[in-house]
């Protein structure tokens, strides 16, 4: 029987391909900000959106379109818009529809910059924000007794890999009239599919695993036609969240190797998490693929793989954490993640340093936590490096 729907690996290589008249094999990079028209009438029709001409690269560009179409195929979404950074995606998805007096409920365990938007920027504009413990379904139920416009969460969260039950929260959110937006950066579309679980929109920092080689910034918002075309795009076009054609082209090519890279990174991460869990100098390890993760059952239910990020707490204070980080010789100290190079950081004093001690305590982030983003080096070399760094604690 002829198969009509291709597998994800095929979509990642071929999806969205738009060949020019030259019939190039590799996707073309259209470095152009403007586009010309055959006539003044055609220009006018393009501005009335009656044709599918490209108009201006702030609105769209053929290379960016290929990237968006490939991402949409990967996610199983009707539509996608790519943005200049992940934060541009997060901010635009909120700013395009929230008004003064609206309410947003979010899980407290968030990427640092998302936390600042929710606790400082949106409240300044009269938007009511409630942050809750996203792992607690009763907390969601209580918060969603009040009519709510948007629910926002990360799962797994940065840096402690807490999970939110996407299906259960989506159901409660819809009953409260809220749209559900999921930051799916840590899981990637290969291992978690929020739209299938009931969410309405998904956002990415494509800076992370999608570029995957630590080169450039990018982001994306995916959802249904009505949201992306009628609500998100008009805001995006006028406010300048667009990604550059060059960045979109690099990431379009990166998607071709995404599944190979993610599978290799996740396999090493699982080995490292198991090693850390049995190590005397480590107090605890958070990795969704370990049976000791407090939400391991949920991880198995809603994820098909467990990611490349691990958090662990060493048996020692901040100075000891710094000593371990400084002792690493292969793994670099960096706050970035999802790179082919393995990277480690001390979240308390870097990625989450804009939070107060009280907020950090509420999130369970301690001065002994180290976050590790597992790259593409040999798993044996990574394990040796971590073991030799931890050995200074004896
Ligand atoms: C990095 C990151 C972002 C922000 O993306 P940028 O590309 O840095 O703007 C948002 N959410 C999560 C979970 C991230 O890891």
Describe this structure in words.
The chain is an alpha/beta fold. The protein folds into two domains: 8-256, Aspartate Aminotransferase, domain 2; 258-393, Aspartate Aminotransferase, domain 1. It is built from 15 helices and twelve strands. It has helices at 8-14, 40-47, 62-75, 86-95, 112-124, 137-143, 166-175, 194-197, 225-239, 245-255, 258-277, 296-302, 318-327, 357-363, 379-390, and strands at residues 79-83, 103-107, 128-132, 150-154, 179-183, 201-205, 219-223, 282-286, 309-314, 332-333, 343-345, 369-373. The strands form two sheets. A seven-stranded mixed sheet has the order 1-7-6-5-4-2-3, sandwiched between helices. Strands 8-9-12-11-10 form a five-stranded mixed sheet, covered by helices on one side. Helix 5 (112-124) links the parallel strand 2 (103-107) and strand 3. Helix 13 (318-327) crosses helix 15. The relative contact order is 0.12. The model has no long low-confidence stretch (mean pLDDT 97). The chain binds pyridoxal-5'-phosphate.
What is the gist of this entry?
This protein is an alpha/beta fold. It has helices at residues 8-14, 40-47, 62-75, 86-95, 112-124, 137-143, 166-175, 194-197, 225-239, 245-255, 258-277, 296-302, 318-327, 357-363, 379-390, and strands at residues 79-83, 103-107, 128-132, 150-154, 179-183, 201-205, 219-223, 282-286, 309-314, 332-333, 343-345, 369-373. Helices cover 39% and strands 14% of the residues.
